[in-house]
Amino acid sequence: MATPLVIDTDPGIDDALAILLALASPEVDLRLVTTVHGNVELAQTTDNALRVLHLAGRSDVPVAAGARDSLVYRQPERAGHVHGGTGLGGVRLEPSPAAPDPRPAVVALAEVLLAAEAPVTVAAIGPWTNVALLLATYPEAAERIGRLVLMGGSAARGGNVTAAAEFNVWADPEAAQRVLGSGVPAVLVGLDVTLPTVLDDDGIARFAAAGPVGEAAAAILQQYVDHARTSYGTSGVVLHDALALTEAIVPGTLGTVRRDVVVDTTLGAGRGQTLVDRRTVSDSPTAVEVAETVDSAAAVEFLVSRMAALTRSAG
Ligand code: BDR
Ligand code: CA
Predict the structure, then answer these.
(1) What residue ranges are annotated as transmembrane (predicted)?
(2) For the chain, which terminus, N or C, has the lower number of CB atoms within 10 Å?
(3) pLDDT (tens digit, 9 = 90+) per residue, 118-168?
């Protein structure tokens, strides 16, 4: 049986790719997409999620809008310089015929969790505000989470948005601390494994050639390719969110070690840093599996072949 999956997301170019990867993967059954503030404003992330699902012919998947802002401190900074003003690299995908689900994201998420016949995988690939709200408001539903796959943080690589912090954690450090300290079984997919995992022009060209869905995905990715070249000096797209989805789809893709992790929630230069205790393997109930090793070439090949197959089946 396919594992029930919920994606909590802020599309976002690499989020769009991650959603398409989930739709291309028979191992998971995407039951719900919840949206959050992050790369762009909530109204835009919600509209983008609807459009991406429609692109793949899956406007039947409900999209519920969640938190407009972080839990404690206002977070007005977005990432339009990375993802384009609309969050999808300036590409205007066709509008979806579907409207957002009328339920707030946490309500929709709780209902999906409680109704599921099997433990649900939740992949959180934007700021983790919605997940923190779920833990606070529906703890009994949060217990139905089989695996929480979290894109965010960094153990040894420093940050990408500040010297210390990765974007998703930095965008809501208090939520991140609440989630990491919750004891829900979690895998932390941070910059240590995402930064070396780069999709290059040849890979993009392979799914772009397969049909219109791949072509649209390639157009969306162009802005990110340009940004990565100038900011990271890499020759393509860093697969942050798609790598997290790969771990959600095929558990064990990444090499993980159980570690204690705390988030710097002070207001100084370290705000949003994930302090990963790499001295020991932890047996604490609140420790999380930290992704430390990755076969980047295999992960990129997985994504490209799944995207090509999705494109062919949708065309
Ligand atoms: C994370 O930040 C966002 O810009 C990306 O979508 C990804 O989720 C990487 O730091
Ligand atoms: Ca994201």
Answers:
(1) none
(2) N
(3) 999 999 999 999 999 999 999 999 999 999 999 999 999 999 999 999 999
166 lines ligand 1 (CB under 6 A): yes
Does the domain at 3-314 match CATH 3.90.245.10? Answer given as yes
**pLDDT tens digits, one per residue of 76-91:** 777 777 777 788 988 9
H-assigned helices in the chain: 13-23, 42-55, 80-83, 105-115, 129-137, 139-142, 167-170, 173-180, 191-194, 201-208, 212-231, 240-249, 296-314
Binding site membership of 244 for ligand 1 (Cβ less than 6 Å): no
Active-site choice (37, 54, 83, 240): 240
Q: Is 240 marked active-site?
A: yes
- Helical pair 42-55 and 13-23, crossing angle rounded to 10 deg: 40
Residues 6+ apart with CB under 8 A from 138: 106, 109, 110, 113
